[in-house]
Amino acid sequence: MRRVQIVTTVVVVTLLLISTFFVYRKQEPVFETKPGEEIESDEAKVIMSVMGNQTEKEELGRATWKFLHTMMARYPETPTETERKSLKDFMMLFSTLYPCGECATHFNKMITTYPPQTSSRVAASQWLCAMHNNVNERLKKPVFDCSGIEAKYPCGCDEEKSSNE
Fold it and tell me: TM segments (predicted)?
């Protein structure tokens, strides 16, 4: 029993050290753009092919929008520069790696034209809602009233605070 505790402790400490290394190591920026600089499309970098099964494509789309809207709802109200860069980089990589190549190409063109707004939770949520509506219009689906986006995808932040108390 004692040996298991020692091995477990060593594994946990090792994982913590490795995690700390990856969090604090100096990383090369994935996208280097300065304020006011035009973002080049990564359309050529889309790596997935067209998704042939329409049902799976629609299921993926619904799940993806739920994920992205929830992520924006939990994005910091006043993000640091690092958090802002992380969100922007994530969205650019997302448009390259999305499993539906056709969707990825369209999304990449959109975010090249309308770069991610990362200054606040509200800005990010409203930006994503506008992108979602852009897709809905292209697919001839109803657009969503973005003024109600926070109610549709609540942050859940209050729940987090109360669970830690």
Answer: 6-24
